[in-house]
Amino acid sequence: MVPSANSWIDPYYADVVKADEEEFCDISKSRVLFGWEEMYVENGEISK
Amino acid sequence: MSRYISREKTFSNADTSSQSALDRIRLYRSQQSQYSEMATKQNLIKVSMFTTRKEGVSEAEFHRYWTERHSKVVSEWLQRNGVVRYSQVSAMVHKRSALRQQVSDYYPQFHTPSWSRNKAKENISVLPDAAYLLYDGVVEMLMQDEKCFQSAIEGMPFAAVNREPLPWCHQLTAG
After folding, report:
1. Among residues 19-38 of chain B, which lie with CB inside 8 Å of chain A?
2. Which residue, of A24, B40, B118, B156, has the greatest Cβ tally within 10 A?
3. Is the ipTM of this complex over 0.85?
């Protein structure tokens, strides 16, 4: 997650979340998708 | 024994599991249905993050850390920013509370270790030409607006409001 330039960064994100991510993840090799879900079959039944 | 290891055992024995496993699947489906309904009614944005473990971290270490440590670090922070909540059964009380607040969402961790890919290859012959993604895990989140991410990083509380669907949602779903 890369914030926009000159934006304020939440200390909790910078000091805790990002630091924790870097303990076990390689963010540069991760990928992200944005979109939405459309459900057509769920619980074994066709959605209304 | 870690939760990661115990899940591997459950996965491996899935074809001979008991009624309790089916009950867990039904409960999981019921929860997903609940969130799908929310996603449809509120035009929620879905975010999938395909994650890769850091060099030098074993698969077992990655999944154990992700489950037992990182989930606790991020869940409250994300929920505070209008984004997420765990889909684990033990979190049902919090889920219902969040539903009342009309703050979206769920935060399942989709663990995809190599043994699960290998197990699939052994048992599934369809899609022989499809390539397997080699990511270690997938985070899936539902949120009211993609700006929730920015809000979380910048420490600006995201306002959960009844907003209009995003313009590009209209464009792609119309007709």
Report:
1. 29-30, 32-33, 36
2. A24
3. no
